[in-house]
Each structure stands twice: as structure tokens, then as C-alpha cells.
Specification:
Elements (H helix, E strand, L loop, with lengths): L5 H8 L8 E13 L6 E6 L8 E4 L3 E8 L9 E3 L25 E7 L4 E6 L11 E7 L11 E10 L4 H8 L14 E4 L6 E3 L5 E8 L6 E4 L5 E6 L2 E8 L2 E3 L4 E7 L8 E7 L20 E6 L37 E11 L5 E5 L11 H7 L15 E4 L4 E8 L5 E5 L4 E5 L20 E2 L1 E4 L3 E8 L4 E7 L2 H5 L3 E6 L11 H9 L31
Parallel strand pairs: 1-4, 3-8, 9-12, 11-19, 20-23, 22-30
Antiparallel strand pairs: 1-2, 4-6, 5-7, 7-8, 9-10, 12-17, 13-16, 13-18, 14-15, 14-17, 18-19, 20-21, 23-28, 24-27, 24-29, 25-26, 25-28, 29-30
Amino acid sequence: MHRGFLPLLVVLAQIPRSWAGTVTYEWNATWVAGSPDGFSRPVIGINGVWPCPKIEANVGDTVVVRLLNELGNQTTGLHFHGINQIGTGAMDGSVGASQCPLAPNHTVEYRFFADTPGTYWWHSHSMGQYPDGLRGALIIHDPQDPYKNVYEKDIIITLSDWFRNQTPSLMSDMIQPNNIGFAPPLPNSTLVNEGGSGELSVEPGKTYRLRLINWAAMFSTFIQFDSLSMDVITIDASYVQRQSVQQLRLSPGQRSDVLVTIPDDAGRNIPYLVVLDINVDYTESNPPRPIEYPYNFTGMLVTDSSKDTSGTLSIQSLDPFDDARLKPYDNQNAHSPVDKQWVLDFDYCHDANGYPRACFNNSTYVAQPVPSLYTATSLGENNTQIEAYGQVGIFLVEYGEVLEIILNNHDDAIHPFHLHGHQFQIIDRPASKAGNWVGHVNANNVPPKRDTVNVNPKSYVVLRIKADNPGVYLFHCHVEWHVEMGLTATLLEAPDRLRNYTIPQDHLEACGALGIPTTGNAAGNLDWHNRNGFATVPPKTYIG
């Protein structure tokens, strides 16, 4: 490993490890039958079972997941959403960026350090597979949790839209020249806890930590627990100062941990409502009311199973708390001064074949034969040559620099954007219709941190990170259909510290199983200038 990682390893070695161990999972990815909304369809399970299992560890543990692909007809891979993979960038699991696809009947091992506590999730980052079921919770418990004496226990609540057709067919229908409106697939239902009843057993007078995870393919969800308050304590595995709210909006990829106290005199079971957002602009002064959308879901906090559990909850407005107003628990100031700015304009576009795509700066992401991390680790002094990586939207930042990311959303809908490898600070996020960023920032000097942020319609967001995690990391919309349409860019971070980084042998063998080169530029050419074999236009057919 390159000497640039040594200071980090020294720091990690100083973390108390009296409780530390290795948590190992042996997983086979298989097709199974699932019917979470009463309609049976093939889903991707683990070890023949769906819903998929959670990963659970304590801070200081090493997590090991050995994945055997037994799907037969699809390649795969696993991404651990929100885990920064400090020093273990090859374990990020983003196919095409940090690993090759895992072929059927082959195994790869993921190994990473559980350095930061919180609520995460894992999912496939290959071929839109997580809407087909390959997803699960990932919880890292914190022995030093500042709120641990406040609540009785954890309860995980997962939120999702659901599609009765498999992703390959949905994408094949979407990515067609006749889709002139860039229309995405629409879901058939809303799932809570992967098709569970939504009934959660609670006791009057007790406080619960609800770990809310949205792993939808497209739609955000509003959630409200009757008239009870939710006290937000974390967003995307980042502690915040306790904030009481009535309603939250979580976009795909986002998580929020909240404390909910059941009244001593509840005397009834308490309904809660999950509203699937249909991308109306709820920030308008007189927005349309999607609360009658047919896929709303009513769950129940059950204090007494002998009492009625069929009640419903009606709300009059959608008015979620603005997460950009939350205060970080550590009161960390905004990173400064800014060394570089990465400005990204998002809009829809068409590729050279006239197929609908999504673009950053008028360019759509085109996956290359060689994973970008492998190019960075094998080109030596030439790994700073952006042209060597192909059409993946590379932006280079040096170690220790403060990077400001500015994203202008030209669309009429809210979009969630996720950065691998970092939690970013939300410096500025104006309301909808603010237009493009024009160089002035209404900076939040003590900004909240998360890894997935909503960007309002016809508006922008300003984010900051400190480049202290050498690697290759994707920045993309977390609407899965937009990922597959190319709404992705790539952060190349501290390339000088990647030149001696070693890719694990089993990951290299996974490439070999598919005949994919593991050294050289985007096409595997050792001469970085040689663009023969670069992918320049996305394929016309969607192959799952």
C-alpha cells in the first residue's frame, strides 16, 4: 500500500478495539420468487431467501462479505452505500468504477473497516439490480452513541416504490428513441419493510430509535407518525443536534434516524402515513396535493394487539422539515478556503443514436471496459491524464484540497444526488426556481453533512468536501433510472497516492473471467494516448 495511506492507518489503529472483531457473511445471490404486493415475480435474494439480510457490526469491526453469483443470467456486484471505504476503495462495489462485473459462478470478497457508526444500506450497483430486490440494511452500532440513554431499542423501517416488471424490460422500454419526453417507468405499489404489514410493536411511555431508509428506485417518500413528533438525531449516518419535526421527506438513498416517544396514555394503536412523492413541487405556495396518490401506505405503531389496527391517517399538507437547516452534532465549520470548484449542469439529452439520456455538462456517462480505479492504479505518472479514463466525467482533485461541488438542476423535479467516498457539507441549497448558481453563496458556516442531497427544481446546491480519501468515486443521481440513463460523473481523488494501491487478486480474477483487462487506460491500452477500444456511445440495447 502506498505510503500516503500510512497516517490514516495510524489514526485507525488508535481507535479503541477492545470490542472489535470480524463480522463475516457468506452470501449466494440467487433468483427467488417474491410477492411483496401480492403479485409474484422473480426477485434477487441471498442464499435463496428474500427479503435480503441486513449487515450488522460495531464500530471498530471488520466487515467481510463473500459473494457468490448464482444468478446464472446476470453479472452483479455490491455497493455499501454511505461507507466511505477509507483506504479500501476497491471495495466500493460500483461496477465499472471500482470493480469489474462479477460473472455467474464466480466469487469475490468485500472487506472494509466499520469506522463510522450509523444507518447505511447495501445494494447492487450493477445493471439497475437493486429495484429487483438486491438490497438490505447495514447498521454500524456506536458504543459511544450520544443518544444511547434516551431510547429503548432500534426499529428499522425501509421505504420503497415497487415495480412488477424486472429492470431489464423496464429499461428497454425507457431507453428508446420514441421516448421523447424522457418518461421513466412508474411503480405499481409502495413497500414498507419489503412488503410487511407496517405494524410495529411498541409500548406506551417508551422511546424508540426508528432507522428510516429509503431505497426506492425513483420516488421519495414523506413520512408522518400521526401527531407524534420525530426527533431527528442522524441524517445519512451523521449525528445532528436533536431537532423535533412533524414530517420528513426522504429521497432514494437517504436515511434518517429519529426518536419517537409513545405517550403513556396512548390508549390506542397509532397510525403513520407513508406518501409516495410523485415529484410535484411541494415547495410551491399552492402545490397540487398528492396525498391522495393511490400508493400511499398506512402503517401502525401497535401498543395493544387486541385493539383495532385498521385505522388510517389523513394529512392536510406536505410540509417536511428542511434538512439543510439541521445542525451537525460536532459543530464543525464549513471547509475553507475552497481550492477547486466542480460545476455540474444537469439536464436531459440524446446520444449520437437519438436515444434518451441524462447528462452532466451535455455529456452522458458511458461505461468503459476497464474500471476507472484500475486505470488510476496502473498508469503510473500518467494517471492524472483525464483523457485516459474515457467518457466518465472525470474531475481531478489533489490530496488535502477543499472541493466545492456546484450542481445546477435544470429539470422541473427534485433530484437526489449521492457522492461515494465522502459525506459532504451542504453549504447552500435555495428553494425551487432559484435558477443557476451565479457565483454567490449564502454559506451556512456550520453546515449539516450527509451523502445524498435533494436538489430543488430549477435550482442548485453547493456542497463541500475535503479530499482526504484517495480513490475513484462516483457522483450520481440516485434515481436508478437516471443512473442507467447516464447521470453520473467521476471524482478522481489524489491520483498520486493511488499509483501503488493494490487491487485484491480475487477482484482481478473476476475481471479475467469476463476477459476484461485490468491495467492501462479505459480500453486497457498501456499507452494512455491510444483511444482504440474506448466506448463513446452507450449501447442501443439494455442488456441485463
